[in-house]
Amino acid sequence: MNSEAYLTALEKRVQEELIRGLDPVAGTLEAAVHYALEVKGKRLRPLIMLSLVEALGGKPDQFLDLACSVEYIHTYSLIHDDHPSMDNDDFRRGQPTVHRKFNDAIALLAGDTLLTMAFEKISLCQGLSTDSRVGFMQTITRCIGTKGMAGGQALDLEFNGKKEMISTIHRMKTGALIQGIMVGTAEFMRQSQKTIRALERAGREIGSAFQLADDMLDVMGDEELVGKKLHKDDRNLSPNAAIFYGVDYVRAEIDRSYRVTMDELKRAGVRFPPFLKLMHMMVYRKY
C-alpha cells in the first residue's frame, strides 16, 4: 500500500465532506465558514482518526461525520487564535485570515458556528450507537475546555517567560485534542483498556512533538511553505521551546517523543503503514 496516496485520497474525501451543504452565497456568516474550511490545510486530525479506524479494523467512510467534527473544532480554534484579541495574524495557510477577509465580528461568529457544527456532526454519525456518540462527545469536550485547548490558549496569553510552563501549554493547547482523538477512536472502536492506554500515551507524546515541530518552524521555517507569518514568537514573548531551550534540545525532544510514540503504537498492535507514516509526517516536516 502506498501510504502517501492513501492519505491523499482520504484527505480528499474529508475535504468534500467538510464543505458539503455549505453555500458561500447564502450570507456573510456561511461564506466565512465556507472560506475557513476551503482554505487548504493538512486535515491532520481527521486523518489521524480515519487511518486509526482502519488500523483497528474499521471502515473509515462510516466515520466521516466524526472526522469532520474534529476538523471543525480545530478550524474554530484557528479563527479565534488568529483574531486581533489573541495572536492577531493576517495570514493562515497562505490566505488572509477570516477576520481580514471579512471582519472581526464575523470571524468570532464563524468560530462559534464551527464549534456548534462539530457537535451536530457527532450527533449525526450513523456509524455509532447513541451511547458511543455521547462517549465520544465527552472525551472530546474534556480535551477542548479549561483542562485542554481553551485552557492552554489562556495560559499562552498569560505566559510571562517562565519556561517551565511551556510543556504544560503545549500539552493542553495542542496535544490534548490529538490525544483525545486517538483515545476517542479507540473507545468507539471498542478496544481493550490496554490498547486505549497505549494510544493515550502515544497521543500525548506525538501531540507534544507536533507542537515542538511548530516551534522549530517559527524559528527556522520558510514563510512561503508554512503559509503564515513566522519569527513572531521571540518578539511576542510566546512560549516557544526552541527559543527558551534551544534548537538542539527541541530536536532531541522530538526524537524522544517519536520513539516513545512508536513503542506505544507497537504495544497497541497498530501496524497500519499509512497511520505510521502520518505519525512521522507530523513531527518531521518543513511546513
In total, the number of domains comes to 1
**Could you give me the name of the CATH homologous superfamily?**
Farnesyl Diphosphate Synthase
CATH architecture: Orthogonal Bundle
Number of strands: 2
Order of helices and strands: HHHHEEHHHHHHHHHHH
Quaternary assembly: single chain
* Average pLDDT over all residues: 93
Shape: globular
What structural category arises from helix and sheet content?
A: mainly alpha
Report the portion of residues in β strands. under 5%
Q: Give the radius of gyration.
A: 18 Å
Task: Report the sheet with the most strands, covering strand number, pairing sense and barrel closure.
Answer: 2 strands, antiparallel
**Could you give the order of strands across the largest sheet?**
1-2
CATH topology-level fold name: Farnesyl Diphosphate Synthase
Q: Total helix count?
A: 15
Task: Report helical residue fraction.
Answer: over 70%
CATH class bucket: Mainly Alpha
Distance between termini?
25 Å
Q: Could you provide a short overview of the structure?
A:
The protein is mainly alpha-helical. It contains 15 helices and two strands. The chain has a single domain, classed as Farnesyl Diphosphate Synthase.
What's the arrangement of secondary structure elements?
Blueprint: H1 3-18, H2 28-38, H3 44-55, H4 64-82, E1 91-92, E2 95-96, H5 98-101, H6 104-124, H7 130-144, H8 149-158, H9 166-188, H10 193-220, H11 223-226, H12 233-236, H13 241-244, H14 247-268, H15 273-283
Helix pairs in contact: 1-3, 1-4, 1-15, 2-6, 3-4, 3-9, 3-15, 4-6, 7-9, 8-9, 9-10, 10-14, 14-15
